[in-house]
Write a structure and sequence with these properties.
Rossmann fold; 7-stranded mixed sheet; 32% helix; binds adenosine-5'-triphosphate; binds magnesium ion
Length: 266
């Protein structure tokens, strides 16, 4: 059974007279416990797809089934519950409240869902402990390093023990050592059973995943699976621990383009 089942998803932004097709027919299934990386050039639709998967935005066309339930049929209460309880979102820019302590930032989702204060503080302390920040609970974001801020954001994402963690370039603003720490942390969460979807521009980061999905121009161009992945349709043949499973691109030139590491973010 798929946890996430997305069928022919389109997202079109209307800007005056112009239409921007950010997604142009994305179909994709993700099973519970998977760790998927999403790569692709700037503007290829990665954040748009993440926002749809996180129920933060609605598609222009297509269907999204979460746990076999059509997201389009859910009412606002159900969507709010899913955003609060089922999905943890980690944003590239952290999105922390600047004037609040780490503890309060992590506690926020629990305030929204009405968890009693004592239980809330216990859970927030526990989440900060998991990310190694037990000694930084009273620090405000500007009193923390970039890596520590990102860890607060991860603690906030996991405080409700969501079944899905969506991370949009969680290491985009971090040095390579801190990036590896964050990825090790996310990998641990995945090994404990959380489904993990990470957008990244960096091949080193994507290698942590079981599967890499390449977006190009609003479509899935290609997918790679780790060689030791036991999924039946994984064909084992390529180097570097990953094997290609799927090519949906019409044009060879696009395939060549997306094989290149993206240089647009430095
Ligand atoms: N709110 C919006 N209104 C209009 N166009 C948008 C909006 N959000 C995104 N777009 C356009 O949709 C396309 C996909 O954007 P998206 O943010 O998903 O790209 P991305 O792959 O995440 O890029 P990056 O790697 O730079 O973060 C882009 O061309 C962008 O300009
Ligand atoms: Mg983006």
């Amino acid at each position: 059974m798929s946890l996430i089942d997305v069928r022919d998803l389109w997202k079109t932004y209307v800007m005056g007279a112009e239409e921007v097709h950010a997604l142009r027919g994305v179909s994709l299934t993700i099973t519970k416990g998977e760790f998927v990386a999403i790569m692709g050039p700037s503007g290829s639709g990665k954040s748009t797809l993440m926002n749809l998967l996180g129920c933060l935005d609605t598609p222009s066309r297509g269907e999204y089934f979460l746990n076999d339930q059509a997201v389009a049929d859910m009412d606002e209460d159900e969507l709010a519950r899913i955003r609060n309880k089922e999905i943890g979102f980690v944003f590239q820019t952290f999105n922390l409240l600047p004037r609040s302590s780490s503890l309060h930032n992590v506690e926020l989702p629990l305030i929204y869902n009405g968890t009693p204060r004592e239980r809330r503080l216990e859970m927030a302390h526990q989440a900060l402990d998991i990310v190694g920040l037990a000694d930084r609970t009273n620090h405000k974001p500007n009193e923390l390093s970039g890596g520590q801020r990102q860890r607060v954001a991860i603690a906030r994402a996991l405080v409700n023990n969501p079944s899905i963690i969506l991370a949009d370039e969680p290491t985009g603003n971090l040095d390579s050592t801190t990036s590896m720490d964050i990825m090790n942390l996310l990998t641990q969460l995945n090994q404990q059973g959380n489904t993990l979807i990470v957008v990244t521009h960096e091949t080193d980061i994507a290698r942590f995943a079981h599967r890499i999905i390449y977006l190009f121009d609003g479509k899935i161009a290609r997918e790679e699976r780790k060689k030791d992945d036991q999924t039946p349709d994984a064909s084992v043949d390529q180097d570097q621990g990953f094997s290609s499973t799927d090519t949906r691109l019409d044009e060879q030139s696009d395939t060549q383009k997306i094989h290149q590491p993206d240089q647009s973010h430095t």
